[in-house]
Amino acid sequence: MKKAIVCLLFLISSTTLVSAAESHYPLDKVNIDLNNKDSLYRGAKIFVHRCLTCHSAQYMRYNRVAKDLGLDEEDVKKNLMFTTDKIGDPMTITMRPEDSKKWFGVTPPDLTLVTRYKGAEWLHTYLRTFYLDPKRPTGVNNLVFKDTAMPNPLWSLQGWQTLIEKGDKKGNPELKISEPGSMTPNEFSVALDDLVNFLAYAGEPAQLERQKYGPKVLFFLAIFCIVTYLLKKEYWKDVH
């Protein structure tokens, strides 16, 4: 009983610490479209080249991505894999956990399920709201996750942002581009949508199969219900 109480208190305190680290900044509205294979492919390329150096997606395999996105192996090898990877490998990283903890203070988490436990809205807003903060070791901070240990992985695309202290009419802090990146704001918005779209897919690839077969299953059940009802009437007509 005592062990159960201790575990419960630990979970409550852990939840409190996480909540304290995160702000109540309003989250973006995100349109997840898993049927948009072009978006998923673009998002996969951004993930591989911008995130996979530090964060793994170890529950996804390259050949599963190829199958679901309708890609051939050559496309995957050319655009989504590093030279040491094989088509059947999971999407892991070579950086050792002890090295990452030494460099960043924490070990970067695996991102396969990030949209499952954080939400696509949280992830989208988090990746969009990095701003310059000379007080932080990485030189940046974040509106959604205060004092985050992660540097901005998309800075060269988005550019550098600075914080406007006065905020908007509702009192929420605002950001402005102080040094443009390689993309316009609209281009970056599309790229960010693609990245979050891919990670939403990675969190549950079976969604594609469910969406494909779901209407067929519902149609079968509807026909089956009609047949069952007519059969019931036939069996019970003499009783009534």
UniProtKB/TrEMBL annotation:
The signal peptide annotation in the UniProt record is 1-20
- Which part of the chain is the Cytochrome c domain? 38-206
Q: Where does heme c bind?
A: 51, 54-55
| Keywords tagged on the record | Heme, Iron, Membrane, Metal-binding, Oxidoreductase, Signal, Transmembrane, Transmembrane helix
The domain of life for this entry's organism is Bacteria
Q: Where in the cell is it found?
A: Membrane
The main place the protein resides is membrane
Gene Ontology terms: cellular component: membrane
Q: What is its EC number?
A: 1.10.2.2
Q: Which cofactor does it need?
A: heme c
GO-annotated molecular function: electron transfer activity; heme binding; metal ion binding; oxidoreductase activity
Cofactor binding, per record = Binds 1 heme c group covalently per subunit.
What protein name does the entry list? Quinol-cytochrome c reductase, cytochrome c1 subunit
* Source organism per UniProt: Candidatus Nitrosacidococcus tergens
